[in-house]
């Protein structure tokens, strides 16, 4: 391994770990943090490539924000870069949840003031991300209309597969509106450093494990195979991000007696409070069921589908989006992503975070820190946590 690659991997690890320590607020907020760090500050990718990657990961099953992080890591440092990016972003919350599971009987979950502040941080971060993306991805009235369509449909019909349906519809609209305009067909080449053979192998593994694991579970009495199968299927069959996986995990583990309802809800409360992807809830469940080895197994199993899918699809992505018709469809898809993000800004981020004039005031301050005063995101996060704590104290007076 040459020194240049080692330096690049170390850089990816440091940046992703900082994001893993400070990225509160769920998958949409994570995309905002990624946009600020990777696109605006470090310029590891351009706006269009980032939007294309987000659109693809929204369309694939699994944790969209984690897949975006893995994809950026792979583009920056190959497969090792993707692994390092994943470890940095995921490990902080995995450690916290595993420790909490180990200390379940002595640690109490509470809706504290700093958690309230972190929810408000998410409002400012997502609003800032939407501003930047909307400027480049919806520059004309047609694409603004597509974004509006996506916004309304996503809010009015908040079903599991609504986002997938909206993205499909937007791709057709984009093809119809822009398919004949050759000046809009140019696509940015991302030079994805993974071969198509590797991509094909990853896709084969994804579908193969989805079929074989339930069969192995039926033939074997080993608990670890049953655990791996439950987590792998939960990570493979989820569209819409971390919150959607929770009912799947509940059905997999609570009725079967792996853990009780109180243990499940306690872990869910802590998972909401820690940074990083909500899929790390698997680390908590795995630790309750099988100790630290179970926690590591659960984490690996639930994120493995995300790895296999992103490594399987991206080697073919440049060829697809370089096609004029696909490029036209992506113009509609990217505009729809802006609408989907605005919908998510309203619900659940705004509706669960802003409940008083003080909350709105703190959100305005944090937004100003990001947009006008150019404060680093990590400092905005800590300011928001402190502000939420102060608001909670004032509310009790």
TrEMBL record:
Keywords from the UniProt entry: Cell membrane, Membrane, Transmembrane, Transmembrane helix
Domain of life (superkingdom): Bacteria
Record InterPro entries: Chr_Tranpt_l_chain, Chromate_transpt
UniProt membrane topology term: Multi-pass membrane protein
Compartments where found: Cell membrane
Pfam families per the UniProt record, alphabetical: Chromate_transp (PF02417)
Membrane-spanning ranges: 79-101, 113-134, 146-178, 198-219, 269-289, 296-317, 329-347, 378-395
NCBIfam families: 2A51
Family: Belongs to the chromate ion transporter (CHR) (TC 2.A.51) family.
The protein's name: Chromate transporter
Organism for this UniProt entry: Siminovitchia thermophila
Phylogenetic classification of the source organism: Bacteria, Bacillati, Bacillota, Bacilli, Bacillales
């Amino acid at each position: 391994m040459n020194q240049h690659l080692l330096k690049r991997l170390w850089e990816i690890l440091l940046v992703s770990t900082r994001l893993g320590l400070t990225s509160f607020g769920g998958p949409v907020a994570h995309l905002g943090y990624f946009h600020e760090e990777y696109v605006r500050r470090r310029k590891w990718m351009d706006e269009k490539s980032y939007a294309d990657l987000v659109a693809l990961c929204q369309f694939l099953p699994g944790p969209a924000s984690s897949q975006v992080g893995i994809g950026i890591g792979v583009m920056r440092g190959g497969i090792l870069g993707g692994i390092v990016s994943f470890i940095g972003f995921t490990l902080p919350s995995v450690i916290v949840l595993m420790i909490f599971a180990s200390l379940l009987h002595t640690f109490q979950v509470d809706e504290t003031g700093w958690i309230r502040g972190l929810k408000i941080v998410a409002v400012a971060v997502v609003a800032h991300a939407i501003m930047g993306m909307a400027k480049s991805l919806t520059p004309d009235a047609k694409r603004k209309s597509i974004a509006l369509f996506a916004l309304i449909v996503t809010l009015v019909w908040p079903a599991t597969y609504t986002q997938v349906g909206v993205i499909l519809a937007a791709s057709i609209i984009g093809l119809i509106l822009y398919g004949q305009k050759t000046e809009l067909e140019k696509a940015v080449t991302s030079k994805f450093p993974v071969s198509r053979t590797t991509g094909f192998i990853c896709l084969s593994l994804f579908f193969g494990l989805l079929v074989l694991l339930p069969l192995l579970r039926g033939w074997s009495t080993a608990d670890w195979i049953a655990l791996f199968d439950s987590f792998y299927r939960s990570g493979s069959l989820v569209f819409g991000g971390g919150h959607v996986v929770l009912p799947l995990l509940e059905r997999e583990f609570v009725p079967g007696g792996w853990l009780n309802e109180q243990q499940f809800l306690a872990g869910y409360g802590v998972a909401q409070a820690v940074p990083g992807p909500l899929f790390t809830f698997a680390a908590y469940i795995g630790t309750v069921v099988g100790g630290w080895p179970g926690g590591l197994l659960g984490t690996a199993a639930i994120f493995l589908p995300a790895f296999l899918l992103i490594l399987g699809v991206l080697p073919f992505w440049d060829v697809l989006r370089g096609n004029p018709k696909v490029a036209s469809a992506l113009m509609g898809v990217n505009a729809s992503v802006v609408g989907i993000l605005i919908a998510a800004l309203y619900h659940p981020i705004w509706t669960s975070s802003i409940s008083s004039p003080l909350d709105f005031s703190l959100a305005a301050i944090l937004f100003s820190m990001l947009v006008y005063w150019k404060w680093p995101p990590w400092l905005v996060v800590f300011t928001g946590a402190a502000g939420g704590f102060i608001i909670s104290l004032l509310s009790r007076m």
